[in-house]
Structure formats: structure tokens, C-alpha cells
Amino acid sequence: MTFVVVGGGPTGVELAGSIAELARHALTSDFRRIRPETAKIIMIEGGPRILSAFPDALAGYAQRALGRLGVRVMTDMPVESITADGLTAGGRFIPARTVLWGAGVAPTGAARLLGIEPGPGGRVPVGADLRVTGLENVYSLGDVAACMDEDGRPLPGLAQVAQQQGNYLGKALRSELTRGRSSAPFRFHNRGNAAIIGRHAAIFDFGRFRMKGYPAWMLWAIVHVVLLVNFAQRIRVSLQWLWRYLTYRRGARIITTPVVRRPV
Ligand SMILES: Cc1cc2nc3c(=O)[nH]c(=O)nc-3n(C[C@H](O)[C@H](O)[C@H](O)COP(=O)(O)OP(=O)(O)OC[C@H]3O[C@@H](n4cnc5c(N)ncnc54)[C@H](O)[C@@H]3O)c2cc1C
């Protein structure tokens, strides 16, 4: 039983870590004929190292943490093809029935819909006020928008970018409509990048300040609970997480034995 996760970004790292924890802890006593803890979990990364957006030291920690969970990380292996029997990466065939894609998403064809030339990465080019380049009164924000930072690099496709742009644009449009005033250009304030590897293992990069291991994992959990929409959700999720933390149980289960219905 081999699981291959393609892509060594935060999504791939989180996915590989979760599969490893499910296989080695949560599902160990759920099957009669298979032993989930013997599953092979392989992460394939096309670049020279995983988590390229993070500093070397944090990425190295994450790779070691994955190794402790039994995940084999293979770098410099760009994926060439995927079939029902496995995948070919870096000229090598790896047999696997389950291949999970964590190597990025492509933008929708919004630029084409607007009849304009796509910007970097096929996204919609926008100015510092989020107005679509070359169009009047059309704005674009979030993942689909190619918005540059002060150094001329495209902002990453992250929820915090999308949220800050949403807040900015709402206020900017209100200011323009009610007071006829244009706003200062949009500036992204990076609140930190995080990747979670598994239980007690995460990394946080705040620029000058970095965290890893248990404190980073705890901070990740607190941030996610605090950002939930209301108090009831925060309590519900906190209790669910506490239960799963104490019992290693997960909510989802697959029933593989067919149910035999006897006539009454
Ligand atoms: C697996 C994964 C993990 C991620 N983890 C993180 C993370 O930990 N932290 C983080 O900050 N970011 C994370 N992100 C990125 C984050 O989800 C995005 O940056 C964020 O959702 C962007 O918000 P958005 O509103 O621009 O786009 P979306 O959230 O994608 O919303 C776009 C919406 O538009 C709809 N839509 C698309 N095309 C059309 C159309 N033609 N007509 C009508 N509706 C349409 C879509 O169905 C969707 O509902 C992750 C992304 C992925 C894929």
C-alpha cells in the first residue's frame, strides 16, 4: 500500500503528515486484513528541497519531522506522468495506486473572460489599488489577482492576502463613493507563514522571528480557533480537537465490509 503525495509545499507536507498519522495511529485497529501502519508514504518534490518559501532551517526541521513519521521525501524529482499504476518522476517509475496532488492550483480563466492579457501565473493583472490593468471600474482580488508587492513580486495565493485585499477594497470603494477620495495603495502585511507537519510539529516564519516544534504547533492551533467566525464554533472545534488529541480518534471512517441484509 503506497501513497504518493506530489508537491513539497505546505499543502503536501500537511497531507503527507496527516496520512502518516492516520496510518500509524488512528486506523491501526480498524482493519482485519490489512495493516495500515505498514503503508509506504512518499513525498515527491520537483525542486531541490521542500517548503521553498520557508528558510532552510525550518524546511530541514519539517523534513526530519516527516522522516520521523515514516514519510520518505524525494527531491529533484519533477513529475512527468501519472497513470492508474503509479507515476514517473525524474525518469523513475514509482508504483502506487494512490497519488495525491499537492503541487499547486491554476487560476480560473478570469483574464480571458475580461478580454485582457493574463498577468504572471495566468492571473488577472491589477494595479496597487486592485483595479484591473487597462479597465475602468473593474477590480480583482484574492488568488485570481496578480498584485505586486513593493519589490515588484506577485503576492502569494494565501487567505491572509485575500482577506486584507477584501477589507482594503471595501473601505476604498466606500471612501471613493461617499467622499470622492481615492485611497492609499494596497499594502500586504504578512502575519507569518505556517506549515503543520503533524502532532506537536509545525513551523512558523514571521520574518525575523521563527518558531518550530511544539510551540509552533500550539500557536497554529490557537490561531485557527481564534479566527473561527463565532464563539460557539470556537468552543465546538476546541472540544473536538481536544477529544481527538486525547484519543487519537478521527471523525471519518470507511466501512469496507459489505452489509448483508437478512430477510425478516
Ligand atoms: C489545499 C489548500 C490549502 C491551503 N491552505 C492555506 C493556509 O493554510 N493558509 C492560507 O493563508 N491559505 C491557504 N490556502 C490558500 C487559500 O485557500 C486561498 O488563498 C484563499 O481561499 C483565496 O481566497 P479567494 O477568495 O481569492 O479564492 P477562493 O477561496 O478560491 O474563492 C473563489 C470562489 O469563487 C468561485 N468561483 C470560481 N470561478 C467562478 C466563476 N466563474 N463564477 C462564479 N464563481 C466562481 C469558487 O468556486 C470559489 O468559491 C490553501 C489553498 C489550498 C488549495
TrEMBL record:
A Pfam family this chain is assigned to: Pyr_redox_2
InterPro entries: FAD/NAD-bd_sf, FAD/NAD-binding_dom, NDH-2
Catalytic reaction annotation: a quinone + NADH + H(+) = a quinol + NAD(+)
SUPFAM superfamilies the UniProt entry points to: FAD/NAD(P)-binding domain
Domain FAD/NAD(P)-binding: 3-166
Enzymatic class: oxidoreductase
Family: Belongs to the NADH dehydrogenase family.
Listed name of the protein: NADH:ubiquinone reductase (non-electrogenic)
Protein source organism: Sphingomonas pseudosanguinis
